[in-house]
Design brief:
The chain has helices at 14-26, 31-41, 47-59, 98-107; strands spanning 29-30, 63-75, 78-88. By secondary structure, it is of the alpha+beta class. The protein has one domain: Winged helix-like DNA-binding domain superfamily/Winged helix DNA-binding domain (Arc Repressor Mutant, subunit A), CATH 1.10.10.10. Strand 2 and strand 3 form a beta hairpin. The longest helix is centred in the first third of the chain and has 13 residues, at 14-26. The relative contact order is 0.21.
Length: 109
């Protein structure tokens, strides 16, 4: 060890990389949709963790906000919901994970 350790979380994250893989195959998606797919494909994580990594991905430019859409419905909290759709950012490095591609193709049928 060189005696100097960086503090805080590492810049790279397996969870964020998995989200990048999902967005690579999905093209665009909103938080709940991404979290649901994530937990179907990978070891389950909390929605809070997914949203943290979406925000962090925006900071690192791996993820971008594609659009923010208001949708009406009958929700437990009211009649409107705001969906933030995400896409890949310029610094994203998707690897093209086959298991993600196959799962998304099955879900889209």
């Amino acid at each position: 060890m060189n005696g100097v350790m960086k503090r805080g979380r590492p810049v790279k994250s397996q969870i964020r990389q998995n989200i990048v893989e999902i967005l690579y195959h999905l093209k665009k998606g909103y938080g709940y949709q991404i979290a649901k797919l994530y937990n179907e494909i990978f070891s389950p994580v909390t929605q809070r963790s997914i949203y943290y990594h979406l925000r962090k991905g925006i900071e690192t430019k791996e993820i971008e906000v594609h659009q923010i859409q208001q949708e009406e419905g009958n929700f437990s909290w009211g009649k409107m919901v705001e969906k933030i759709y995400y896409t890949l950012g310029g610094t994203a490095e998707p690897k093209g994970e086959k298991q993600v591609q196959e799962h998304i193709q099955r879900c889209q049928k």
